[in-house]
Amino acid sequence: MTATAQDADAPAAAHFRFFALEVLRTRRLGHSFLRVTFGGESLADFRSGGYDQSLSLFLPPPGHEHTVLPSTDEDTWFGAWRGMPDEERPVMRSYTVREQRRTDGGVDEVDIDFVLHGDTSPASHWAGRAVTGRRIMAIGPAVAENKSVRFQPPAATDAIWMYADETALPAAAAILDRLDAGTRVRAWFEVPHEDDRLDLPTLADADITWIVRAGAGRERTEQVLEALRSGEPASAEAPYAWLAGEAGTVRAVRRHFVQERSVDRRAVRFTGYWRLGASEEELLAEAYAGQAPSEDPASEL
Ligand SMILES: Cc1cc2nc3c(=O)[nH]c(=O)nc-3n(C[C@H](O)[C@H](O)[C@H](O)COP(=O)(O)OP(=O)(O)OC[C@H]3O[C@@H](n4cnc5c(N)ncnc54)[C@H](O)[C@@H]3O)c2cc1C
């Protein structure tokens, strides 16, 4: 589950539970991506729904090797976690289950692809130093059909249109993994570096445009909009658009699809995965204060 303000008030749904994860290995995928493969006995009960399945990670605070939570009871964990002294409280962050599998040897594994975006942000910092044996905690799916799978195209969908920046590329890749042969996909993926244009195996009939970022802020959004405008998506009667990435850019891309391409707004699934200049704590604080209009505290759309 990506923990939300609603989750704070209500007991965590039975669809989600705590899992103890241990780093098995890491692998660099591209300039900005590090894959961390986790194992752990509790993963035997982990049930990813695939697609853009997300989960909440609890990472150790500075100076601590492993994550320790005072409670993993669904009724009390949130208060216990929030009540910890700042310097001891594990950092909660949203990530995507890139893949779940059971190896031939019967070991349950989960891959998470972290964007390394600098050393001062807790999750990026942690991932950059992840070594075998480090233990963290997660709240993740215990049933495959759960609300943290946001990719839900209506049955009549005849084409999928996608926009993702690097933080949402793991989710986009996992979606492409699962699509049926021949599904028509038009996708725009924005990455910081040429080496981040990863191979994305899929049976779908996918036409992908890579956008290698050239600027920051407004310039960055303009570059994305320019790419969208110059690449006409194949015609479709009932397209479904899935958009995820930096909140300001996602908002602009959504406007583009709804206003310039007349896509039914109900057929657009959009999620801010992060927001320029705001940590996930700040986004959550806004959600608790009722300032974030979206269903998702990581989204200010
Ligand atoms: C549902 C969901 C799924 C996600 N899946 C993934 C995933 O699979 N892989 C992944 O890498 N991220 C993913 N994210 C995004 C990730 O949660 C954020 O990037 C998060 O802010 C990272 O935490 P941090 O501690 O590194 O940075 P924070 O402490 O949250 O932020 C510190 C500063 O860094 C900035 N920042 C945050 N992320 C980035 C970035 N990528 N590039 C540049 N600046 C940034 C913030 O604006 C802030 O100014 C997902 C988010 C959501 C909501």
How many β-strand runs?
Answer: 12
The hetero compounds bound to this protein are: flavin-adenine dinucleotide
What's the total helix number? 7
Strand content: 25-35%
The assigned CATH architecture of the largest domain is: Beta Barrel
How many whole angstroms does the radius of gyration measure?
A: 19 Å
Name the strands of the widest sheet in spatial order: 4-3-7-1-2-6-5
Q: What's the helical proportion of residues?
A: 10-25%
Assign the CATH superfamily of the largest domain.
Answer: Translation factors
H/E order of the elements?
HEEEHEEEHEEHEEHEHEH
How many domain units? Answer: 2
Q: How far is the N terminus from the C terminus?
A: 20 Å
Q: Which structural category do the helix and sheet elements fall into?
A: alpha/beta
Low-confidence blocks of residues: 1-13, 293-301
CATH T-level topology of the largest domain: Elongation Factor Tu (Ef-tu), domain 3
Largest sheet, described in full? Answer: 7 strands, antiparallel
Description:
The chain is α/β, with parallel strands linked by helices and 301 residues long. It folds into 2 domains: 5-141, Beta Barrel (Elongation Factor Tu (Ef-tu), domain 3), CATH 2.40.30.10; 159-288, Rossmann fold (3-Layer(aba) Sandwich), CATH 3.40.50. 22% of the residues lie in helices and 29% in strands. It contains 7 helices and 12 strands. The chain has helices at residues 5-9, 77-82, 122-128, 169-178, 217-230, 247-260, 280-288; strands spanning 16-28, 33-39, 54-59, 91-96, 99-102, 108-115, 135-141, 159-164, 184-191, 205-212, 239-246, 268-274. A 7-stranded antiparallel sheet has the order 4-3-7-1-2-6-5. Strand 8, helix 4 (169-178) and strand 9 form a beta-alpha-beta unit. Helix 5 (217-230) packs parallel to helix 6. The chain is globular and about 55 Å long. The protein starts with a helix and ends in a 13-residue tail after the last helix. The relative contact order is 0.15. Mean pLDDT is 91; it is low at 1-13 and 293-301. The structure holds flavin-adenine dinucleotide. Residues 2, 54, 93-96, 113-115, 117, 121-124, 167, 170, 271, 273-280, 298 line the site of flavin-adenine dinucleotide (FAD).
